[in-house]
Amino acid sequence: MHLRKAKLMFFYTRYPSSSILKIYFPDVRFNKNNTAQLVKWFSNFREFYYIQMEKYARQALAEGVKETDDIVVTADSEIFRVLNLHYNRNNQIEVPENFKAVVQQTLREFYKSISSQKDQEQSWKKAIYKIIARLDDALPEYFKSPNWMEQLNES
């Protein structure tokens, strides 16, 4: 259940602090080990996310996309479907509208870096990570509840 909740939270926040995690997992008695585990989950979620971004940005370049404005992410986009399937397998929540904007911005940042050959430099992704970290949203209140799943069904 905690892993499922964390995956759904990823739609809002890619870089939650440990203090945020403690607020949104009130049923967990936090210690060094389980705090590290939760932080690791989000690290793994980001890794999958960024691997997809790089893949689709390279694909856009190979398909001849010339302008970053030509990269548009909608609910029907393949990348959006892949991410939704990974983080929201059972469609438990309606993906927040802003997540599409975050995906689009991330994809455009990867595209710009790859097309300008910044990907030849070591640590080229760090600049992208900093941009995306600023796009985190506030988490919905229902995630604070130990009964968050029941509240999902009510909304």
Automatic annotation (TrEMBL):
Keyword tRNA-binding: no
One Pfam assignment: HPD
Chief localization: nucleus
InterPro entries linked: Homeo_prospero_dom, Homeo_prospero_dom_sf, Homeodomain-like_sf, Prospero_homeodomain
GO cellular component: nucleus
Entries under Gene3D superfamilies matching the protein: Homeo-prospero domain
UniProt entry keywords in alphabetical sequence: Developmental protein, DNA-binding, Homeobox, Nucleus, Transcription, Transcription regulation
GO molecular function (one): DNA-binding transcription factor activity, RNA polymerase II-specific
Entry-linked PROSITE patterns: HOMEO_PROSPERO
Domain Prospero: 1-153
GO terms for biological process, alphabetical: cell development; glial cell differentiation
Subcellular location as annotated: Nucleus
Domain of life, per lineage: Eukaryota
Name of this chain's protein: Prospero
Originating species: Capitella teleta (Polychaete worm)
